[in-house]
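From the methods appendix. Each design record in this collection lists the tokenized structure first, followed by the designed amino acid sequence. Records were kept in a plain field format so they could be parsed without special tools. The example shown here is representative of the layout used throughout.

RECORD:
FOLD TOKENS (217 positions):
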């Protein structure tokens, strides 16, 4: 279970920079979204408090429905993001800066349709630590994630089943070809008048929730 939960956390933390309103399954002419994410363990340690993770993310769309990307920006979680156009599409380089030195953490590769196909993670020494490769169905919905851990040469494959909102409701974890874990997820939503979700709550080992403020043209 822990591996699947870590994967979903990772997908949440590195996703969404290259999508359109259609790919994000949004109805109506959305101008912007302010999204708040909160993740807490279901039970606090004895005598302690809940250690929760919180993140705020903003999305802005042009009138054509595409997510507006800057050549370089600082994300809400502190990453310096640079966009590099390539023949295949483009790459987002995400770096962190401390002690006056900018260190590359992630490279996210997108095809010409703006769909993420691979992510490379670097350690503090600048060496490749992990690689994630993504497969999709004909509707551009994520169906499989292949994770390669460079340090121990373990290949982990996650197969996903999604609901109509594009959220994972069932995930299976394979390590070097063997099924090691399977988990389903219960998700509760509330919606606005246009059918876009405003709140989304996952219940599993953790309590995960999203809240959105959506503005329209």
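DESIGN:
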């Amino acid at each position: 279970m822990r591996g699947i939960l870590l994967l979903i956390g990772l997908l949440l933390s590195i996703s969404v920079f290259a999508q359109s309103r259609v790919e994000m399954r949004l109805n109506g002419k959305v101008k912007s979204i302010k999204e708040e994410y909160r993740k807490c363990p279901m039970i606090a340690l004895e005598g302690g408090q809940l250690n929760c993770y919180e993140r705020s993310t903003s999305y802005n769309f042009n009138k054509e429905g595409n997510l507006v990307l800057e050549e370089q920006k600082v994300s809400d979680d502190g990453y310096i993001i640079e966009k590099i156009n390539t023949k295949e599409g483009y790459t987002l380089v995400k770096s962190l800066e401390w002690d006056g030195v900018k260190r590359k953490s992630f490279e996210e590769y997108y095809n010409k349709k703006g769909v993420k196909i691979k992510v490379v993670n670097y350690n503090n020494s600048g060496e490749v630590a992990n690689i994630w490769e993504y497969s999709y169905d004909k509707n551009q919905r994520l169906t499989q994630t292949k994770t390669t851990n460079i340090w121990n040469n373990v290949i982990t494959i996650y197969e996903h089943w999604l609901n109509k909102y594009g959220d994972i409701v069932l995930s299976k974890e394979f390590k070097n070809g063997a099924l090691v874990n399977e988990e389903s997820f219960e998700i509760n939503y509330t919606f606005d008048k246009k059918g876009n979700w405003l709140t989304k709550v996952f219940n599993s080992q953790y309590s995960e929730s999203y809240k959105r403020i959506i503005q329209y043209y």
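APPENDIX NOTE: The longest helix spans residues 2-14.
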